[in-house]
Protein: Secreted protein
Amino acid sequence: MPRRISVLRRAVMGGVTAAVALTTVLSAAPAHAVDESSSTGINFELPQRWNDDYKPGTRCTPQGTRGVYVTASRRWFKQTDGASVENSTNATVPVTHTVTVKRSETTEVKAEIKAEGTLATYLNQSYGFDYVDAVSWELSQKVGPYDLAPHTQGRLVWGFVMLDVDAQNVTCGADLTWHAVGKPFSGTNPESRYAELTSEGAID
Structure:
């Protein structure tokens, strides 16, 4: 099993570190190119809900207020790029890469129905994380550094942590409870940039 050398929400704005005797070959990888099975660590634990705001049947005020009840259904890594790396030295070396292609992700709603407001706003209220409508890797931004062991090869990948959600528009009724309006819909919201280094064993 490849060893992953990073954690969820790791800051990948890091500084530049020279990697002595390190060969890096850039090769673009399409979205969803990595294995997303639960045994690989690519699927991440879902966020914990803070409250039941906007849940149909719960209390609300004032009458006529609108909102969106969102439920997180899957958190996953969307890979956009990758680089093969190897360390032929006798010492651990830091691996970095400079972004050469800007990549951006924005909130996507998978239906003709649109949220009454942004999904990120309701995710923030319900889950308490700093969700955004868009996130990007900018040109010349640095990926890493991550340490690569002596005489090993690996794969440096980067992209975005995405959150799939189910959603329902709601309105506060005359009985001061939330009522569903229209059909449920789904969407995907970008959560953060993400990068990791996967060790692929000894150099052949």
